[in-house]
Specification:
The protein has 204 residues and is of the alpha+beta class. The chain has six helices and ten strands, in the order H-H-E-E-E-E-E-E-H-E-E-E-E-H-H-H. The strands form two sheets. Strands 1, 2, 5, 6, 7, 8, 9 and 10 form an eight-stranded antiparallel beta sheet that branches. Strands 3-4 form a two-stranded antiparallel sheet.
């Protein structure tokens, strides 16, 4: 459940009559490739650099700088109430200096990310950017264009919690792991060779 800013909620409720202009913000905590030191970078969908207060995962506010001019867009951002793993794609310009620094100068593998959103109302933000998604970078897709084409950089962001919950753990059914739990336990003795077995519990 999300407790969104009332002004942001009002803008969403009025969107059927007035339309809506969403504004997206992306924050990432990566590592410097040369030194291994932590590096942070904020990008947003606008053209200029701005400093804004944004909602933190704990419910407070923090001040961050976000760089513009990167043609930032976010796809497949869904709010679900189950264990469905819905990867989010964050796309940006391939030639912008900030994005070049992000993928060339920083190591973004498993980097922590936050996505915030608000809306434009009368030329102003309806509220402080509201936290929409927390995840980690699962993959980087760099689209090199043909001559005269347009390239892009895409980060595939997945929920860290869902990634851990849905990750397979082959050790849980191995014979050696079972014996480490309790010496002499041979419950999984043939799990490595049996693969799969269908048991018919009734007789036709």
């Amino acid at each position: 459940m999300q407790n969104l800013d009332p002004a942001f909620v009002a803008s969403l409720q009025a969107s059927r009559d007035r339309g809506i202009a969403p504004v997206l913000f992306f924050w990432i905590e990566a590592k410097n490739r040369d030194t291994g030191a932590p590096e942070t970078l904020g990008l947003w969908a606008g053209d200029e650099n701005i400093t804004r207060n944004v909602e933190t995962p704990t419910g407070g506010l923090t001040t961050r700088e976000y760089l513009g001019g990167t043609n930032l867009s976010v796809a497949n951002l869904k709010l679900v109430a189950d264990l469905t793993d819905e990867p989010v794609t964050v796309s940006m310009s391939q030639i912008a200096a900030a994005t070049q620094q992000l993928v060339r100068g920083y190591d973004v593998r498993l980097a922590y990310c936050e996505i915030h959103a608000t809306s434009w109302v009368g030329g102003e933000f309806s509220s402080d950017p509201q936290l929409q998604f927390i995840g980690i970078v699962d993959d980087v897709q760099i689209g090199t264009p043909e001559v005269g084409g347009q390239g892009s950089i895409g980060l595939i962001i997945r929920s860290e919690l869902m990634t851990q919950l849905l990750a397979p753990n082959p050790a849980k059914s191995s014979d050696s792991h079972q014996k480490r739990r309790q010496a002499g336990d041979r419950f999984s003795e043939y799990s490595g060779t049996m693969q799969a077995r269908k048991v018919q519990w009734r007789k036709d």
